[in-house]
Description:
Layout: H1 2-8, E1 13-14, E2 17-18, H2 23-29, H3 50-58, H4 62-68, E3 70-72, E4 75-79, H5 80-89, H6 93-109, E5 116-118, H7 119-125
Antiparallel strand pairs: 1-2, 3-4, 4-5
Amino acid sequence: MAQFWNSTYSCFTFRKVDLAPTIEEYTALLRCLRFHVEKIYSRAVNTPTFVKRLMNITGMSEQWVATRVQQKGNGKCIPWENLRDLILAHPDMKKRVDVFALSVYGLVIFPKALRHADEVVIDLFD
C-alpha cells in the first residue's frame, strides 16, 4: 500500500490532477481582494518598512516593535511569544483579533521560520 501511495499521490496531487491552489484562489481564500492578479508578483514602490507594518497591525509603538524584531536568515520576523502576549493583553479587541489572525497566518498557513511570523507573511497580511 505504501508503494501505491507514493507513486500515485503527492501533497497537492490526487491521481494526475493538480490540487494546488492558484494565486487567484489564495487571494480569495485570504481575502486579499485589493491585489491585482496580473500584478501579484510586483512590489509597490513606496511600501512601509517592516516595523511600520507591524506597528499598523498591532497598534503598538515603534520602540515596542523595534525591540522585538529579530533577524532570521535573510529576513526579519517577530517571535510568536510576543504575538501571544499581545493577544492575551492588548486593550483594543480589534487589534487582538488582528494579531491572532497574523499569528495564524505566520504559524499555520505560511510557516517559514519556526515559532516566528516573518516579513513576507506580515507584508501579505497588511
